[in-house]
Amino acid sequence: MSLNFSHLVVLLIVLVVAAAVITLFVSALLSIAKSQTTGTEKAVWILITLLFPVAGPLIWFFVGNNAGRKAQPPAPPSAS
Fold it and tell me: Which own/partner contact pairs does 30-38 have at CB distance under 8 Å and 24+ positions apart?
């Protein structure tokens, strides 16, 4: 069995996509672990990420990551 150029290109693309998915997955798990959400919310997000290894992290970064942050009240006007 010999690998020609097109097989090597496909293999390279698959490896790059796999590395990107693994990086996304791991970074989402670390982000969830460090977030300020409650323990139950973290467990749900980790479960979603484990069940949906591509969609789960994407949803976390676009939706869930911001849900744990509390809105900052506006700064009081400075006294002059």
Answer: 31/60, 31/61, 31/65, 32/60, 32/64, 35/65, 35/68, 36/68, 36/69, 37/64, 37/67, 37/68
